[in-house]
Amino acid sequence: MDSEILSYIELIYRFCLHRLNSRTDAEDLSQEILLCIIESMQKQKIDNLGNYIWRVAHNRYARKIQQNQHEKNIVYGEEYLFDIEDKTSLIDNIQKTEEYSLTFKALHTLSSMYRNILVDFYVYELNIYQIAKKYDLSVETVKWRLHTGREKMKVRLDIVNKTYSKIKMHVMCNGSFDPNKYLCNQIYKAIAVACYDSPITIEEVSLATGIPTLYLEEALEYMIYGDAIEKVGNKYQTNFIIVKESDNQKMCNALQSKIKEIAEKVWTVYDNSIEEIKSIGFYGKDFPITKLAYIVLPSILRTAVSKAKEENPLPRPLRKDGGNGWFIVNEGIEKLDELYAGCNTYSYNDNIKLTYYWLGKLFDNELNVALRNAEFFVSHINNETGEFDNDNTEDTAKALRFNLVFKQNNRYYSNITIFNKEQYIASYDLTNMEHEITGLLHDWVATLYKQYKTFTPKRLHNQVNGNVQSYSFNVVAHVIKELQENGMLRTPSQDEPFVDNIFLTIF
């Protein structure tokens, strides 16, 4: 099946099920629609696949209704609203009549309290008394909703024929939960952008996004569960900070003038302390200093950044889904570039922890997923010698694949640094000392707080601390880039997973 239509399969099935109320009939109609679309794609080029799919869906649904009924019928979908008079010319009429398309787009931007009554009155031709009985409403309420619905339709018909570009958004978190679940498609992203500046009703969300309210209701409920959206009265507001590309660039520019000096200072601190750090005796002490730098430099810089902050870190908020922390969202990008950095930690059996000081351009999601379930590696390691036992060939193959081990004299050894509890504490103490870097970073971090509060809606100011905490650690990526360009650090090879910035701690 063509990969372009895979994302529509579930929506097509739900479209059919919603209208037919029979899983068997919905499955049959879904298959008929998909077959028609695939055959058409093989015969001709389709410029707007989304519009074409829904046109076919509505046409096929209309045809099925014709087969089942002999009286007046309804075509109820995204694009059409009219009485069916001539069955033989139905499909041609649907394809040719653009005003029907606009009418249904406008109709679906209304909430169900207006939409259902308009459809019953104009399409099913129920009178006001029948509608009142159907919904258990007073006649006056039905009259009011009909009038209000008509007025809303007039406004919508003026603006509904609008095109939208794809929303680029990179999503991560400062905490422990899966933020991508709540921003995994264009509908969720469009909702977040629409509700960002101020709270709006579901109808206003529909107008802003072009998405029918029918499809917004379920999405909004899911985003509320994920704390991505808050409902205030009958309005919805985005519950996380969105950093626009232009704002991100301003924050980067504020750091650039200091990077050269910061890089020189941090390398001096590292160069003066590396021998003392190596004397702690951890596994990996004999690795090249350019390799060890990828775990020691981030530690020095992250400590300096934490000390440079004027505001103490807030406790991570608990979330409805059981996680904790804040969304970290950047609009205008889908992949992190070389100027982003962060830290992921993975715990096993309460006494083993892997730490991954990732760099944006080098971030390896496949490696990241493997580290979440790294029993294949940590269960075979001797923390003193670094030797990896070869008892399980499958685990060995996986460890080799992710460059976590290397082979020497027919034995396998860890390719990452390993600390026991005492060694980790000693190394942390050596990188946690006060030095000039903290002073250099102080003004920049203070500027970050001011910039965030400038472009963040006031209702979200309580999340600025968590976002600045995350964003300020990007200084690691800026410094690493500067040192690579100056030849102080090796530029990682693209031929194998980069693991110099990962270490194992066994408590």
Number of strands: 13
How many discrete structural domains? 4
Radius of gyration: 29 Å
Identify low-pLDDT runs. Answer: 70-100
Shape: elongated
The major sheet is characterized as: 4 strands, mixed
How do the strands of the widest beta sheet line up side by side? Answer: 7-8-13-12
If you had to describe this structure to a student in words, what would you say it looks like?
- The protein is an alpha+beta fold and 507 residues long.
- It is 52% helix and 11% strand.
- It has 20 helices and 13 strands.
- Strand 10 and strand 11 form a beta hairpin.
- Helix 1 crosses helix 2 and helix 3 packs antiparallel against helix 4.
- The longest helix is centred in the middle third of the chain and has 34 residues.
- The two termini are 51 Å apart.
Question: Helices and strands in order, then pairings?
Answer:
Blueprint lengths: L8 H12 L2 H21 L5 H20 L21 H7 L1 H10 L4 H11 L5 H8 L3 H21 L9 E8 L9 H9 L5 E2 H8 L3 H13 L3 E4 L2 E4 L3 E2 L1 H34 L10 H20 L15 E8 L12 E5 L3 E5 L8 H8 L2 H4 L8 E2 L4 H9 L3 E4 L2 E4 L2 E4 H11 L4 H20 L8 H8 L3 H11 L16 E5 L1
Parallel strand pairs: 5-6, 12-13
Antiparallel strand pairs: 1-6, 2-4, 3-4, 7-8, 8-13, 9-11, 10-11
